[in-house]
């Protein structure tokens, strides 16, 4: 049985934001939403807190060292084109060390820092909802 496919999966994501407000996005190679720009994240493992999963996934995908993370929002995505269903707890941080890298080229193809008002297309539903939640907090 596969989370997100055979039953709703529990995921997590992290909006990484620099002091100048730019956000870090990566382009996905795999479903759901292959080819879309997204925040970093992944599934929550059994007995792992979602904030710790967000930090772990972000560090694995970016090479950054992540400090404090703050809760941002919950999203539920039913992505019919990929036959996937995810409930994700999304966090935000501006507490990190290092420069982002392309650490998992088998999962992600490109990355960059973008201003929230000029995000690349296509943008994933996860990132779209996270950016809307971030805007509503300001």
Task: Walk me through the structure.
The chain is an alpha+beta fold. It is 19% helix and 37% strand. The chain contains 2 helices and 9 strands; from the N terminus they run E-E-E-E-H-E-E-E-E-E-H. The chain has helices at 50-62, 125-137; strands at 9-16, 23-28, 37-38, 40-43, 65-66, 70-79, 84-93, 96-97, 108-114. Strands 4-1-7-6 form a 4-stranded mixed beta sheet, sandwiched between helices. The chain is globular, with a radius of gyration of 14 Å. The chain starts with 8 loop residues before the first strand and ends with a helix. The model has no long low-confidence stretch (mean pLDDT 96).
Précis, in short:
This protein is α+β, with helices and mostly antiparallel strands.
Topology:
Layout: E1 9-16, E2 23-28, E3 37-38, E4 40-43, H1 50-62, E5 65-66, E6 70-79, E7 84-93, E8 96-97, E9 108-114, H2 125-137
Parallel strand pairs: 1-7
Antiparallel strand pairs: 1-4, 2-3, 2-9, 5-8, 6-7
Q: What fraction, in percent, of the residue positions are helical?
A: 10-25%
Flag low-confidence runs: none
Number-wise, the strands total 9
Q: In percent, how much strand structure appears in the residues?
A: 35-45%
User: What oligomeric state best describes the polypeptide chains here?
Assistant: single chain
- Computed over alpha carbons, the radius of gyration is 14 Å
Shape: globular
Order of strands, main sheet, comes to 4-1-7-6
Q: Report the major sheet.
A: 4 strands, mixed
Q: What's the SSE pattern? A: EEEEHEEEEEH
